[in-house]
Amino acid sequence: MGNIPEIIFSTLIWALLSTTIVMAASIPLAYLLARKDFLGKRVVATLISLPLVLPPTAVGYLLLQLLSDNGPLGASMIGLDLNILFNWKGIVLACSVMSLPLVVRTMRVSFEEVNPRLEVMARTLGRSPLNTFFTVTIPLAARGILAAMILGFTRAIGEFGASMMIAGNIPGRTQTLSSAIYSAQQSGQMDKGLILLLIAIAIGFIAVFFTEYLSNPKSSKREKGVLNG
Amino acid sequence: MADSVLELNIHVPLDSFALEIKTPFEKRVMGVFGPSGSGKTTLIETVAGLRRQATGFLKCGTHVWMDSAKQIYQHTEARHIGFVPQDHLLFPHLNVEQNLTFGVNRNSNEANMRSFEGIVEVLELRPLLRRSPAQLSGGEKQRVSLGRALCSNPQLLILDEPMASLDQRLRHRILPLLLKIKDHFQTPILIVSHSPFELQALCDEVIAIDRGKIVAKGRPEEVFTQPQLYQNFDGESFKNLISAIIVEQAEHTTQIRLGNAKTSPLLNMIKIDGKIEQKVLVGFPANDVIISNSFVTGVSARNQLQAKIEKIESLDHRLIVTTKLLGNPTQSVVVELTPNALEELKISQGDEIFILLKSSSITRYG
To answer: Which residue of A has its CA nearest to B51?
Structure first.
């Protein structure tokens, strides 16, 4: 079993990597779902949300099938060994797939809350669609985007089922905070389990507290008062 | 032929009818009048490049914005429009100054700075620059929205129902401001409104549309004295709006001159603030005017103006009489009469008459 600082450090790094990947994918996806109508939109939305309702082990199993040597994304099929299974890349992949729905859904709502007429306004003032996206849409949805990011990050930290299936629980290689808690409990290392538990609570508390703050900061209440008055 | 300010020949299919507008606008301040659902919004959205399904031809000054035959379609951001929507649409994440400078301005930096300072001055925005839109009142938001549009140095300023969202008290304050913008900046302005009063006060040329088609076009007083458009004044009577110059301030009254010429007719009204030679916009309702076929003595009305009857149209049980003032033939005055009164006075088109007007009937609007 790996030592505690190492476990915490690698868990945080993997969660950060996964969050980065998920954010890069979610911003365009959530914007498309919020603003555009296209063929198969519902199917896309459903597929993205699927990991949210499937057992994590099922998602893990699906990824395992896809990425195994003879799977559709396996080495013999695409002629290139991605070398994802049973190493840190597997963890990052599992975390990304499992947190994507949460991030996309949260972000989609925050994009939908941006008044599209403000975007039109920016266009009339000479801004291109891309420029409008970065100067109007993103800043106005920023709070929701940040909240989505934190949610995605905490979901990645807590990932267990899918990562166990495709990366295992190899101390010093693929052990994460959640799988280490599991191992500690299984092997009767109560002290270590307790420390890991406290660290998990601390990370979770900070994240949720921050999300709460973002969804209802005091300053926005005051602004609303002025608007209504 | 000289370029018109704005040339429209557009076709936009809508749910229950199609918007089909074909007209050049020759004057700098143009108005579009129509009841709600007549296609006004579609018209401005088409001009602004927000209706991709529009076809036809659209030209502003020398710039062709759309020419379906030549497959030309300029996107919104390339049209250089200053759009002032009804609900102001200020960017809530930016302060007033950032809102004002948000537009992409093609001017040189120096010219830019000059125009920014000028706009801030004219619209009295300096004390607001650091505030956030949430801290502004309705009238202040309106001013910032106007300023933001002007700061982008637009080729066309579009005002969508500029006074609709404001209450009565604010309306009287925004109108002088809009007049000031009209005078200060040489930008062509397209105003869309369901209020004839607004268009009359501001525009040099108006089209009236209904169910997507033009039903009248001309100077505002020509358009709004047509019987089918006459009764659109929010339940009030038609208002004669006249720009005038203060010529004398007495103890209780102010004398104004209707027009620039020395011989232009004079009017007395209840005292208003203002310096001699200052421009004002005054108005009086058409049903407050009395007509006489000769000069009247022994009457309390302080004003008697000579005018010539230009046209008489009947509407329900009333007559709408359009007259031209002698001494300022470009200025018309509309009078509402009953058919009996006309018969008794034995007057008809082309006759010279006297217009009697109480000082207290005259209101200042700008």
So the answer is: A120
**Nearest by CB: B77 against A115, A128, A223:** A128
User: Contacts of residue B77 in chain A, CB cutoff 8 Å?
Assistant: 123-128
Residue indicated by tokens 């933001």: B148
- Residue A57 φ then ψ, to 5°: -65, -35
Taking the Cβ of residue A126 and every Cβ of chain B, the question of whether any pair is shorter than 8 Å is answered with yes
Distance of alpha carbon B226 from alpha carbon A192, whole angstroms: 90
CA distance A193 to A182: 8
Residues 6+ apart with CB under 8 A from A215: A143, A147
Contact A126 B92 (CB under 8 A): no
Look-up: residue for tokens 């929010």? B234
Instruction: Please report the pLDDT score of residue B310 as a whole number.
Output: 92
Per the CB < 8 A criterion, the answer to whether B131 and B100 are in contact is: no
Residue-level pLDDT at A2 = 61
Q: Are B193 and B203 in contact (CB under 8 A)?
A: no
Q: Is A220 on the interface with B (CB under 8 A)?
A: no
Classify residue B282 as left (phi > 0), alpha (psi -120 to 50) or beta: beta
CA-wise closest residue to B352 among B305, B317, B320: B305
B39 by Cβ neighbours in 10 Å (0-12 / 13-18 / 19+) ranks as buried
CB A175 within 8 A of CB A7: yes
**B89 with A125: Cβ contact below 8 A:** no
Q: Residue B95 is encoded by which pair of tokens?
A: 């302060």
> What is the tally of helices (H) and strands (E) in chain B?
9, 21
Q: Which residues of A touch B93 (CB under 8 A)?
A: 136, 139-140
The pLDDT tens digits for A66-104 are: 998 888 888 888 888 888 999 999 999 999 999 999 999
Listed residue (A99, A85, A69, A66) closest to A166, CA to CA: A85
Domain ranges within chain A, ordered by starting residue: 4-228
Residue B143 corresponds to which amino acid? R
A4-228 architecture in CATH? Orthogonal Bundle (1.10)
Q: Is the pTM of this model over 0.90?
A: no
Q: What is the pLDDT of residues A131-177, one digit of tens each?
A: 999 999 999 999 999 999 999 999 999 999 999 999 999 998 999 99
For the question of an ipTM over 0.90, the answer is no
The closest CB to that of A124, out of B81, B87, B132, belongs to B81
Chain A residues whose CB is inside 8 A of the B81 CB are 124
Q: What is the pLDDT of residues B277-321, one digit of tens each?
A: 999 999 999 989 999 988 988 888 889 999 999 999 888 888 899
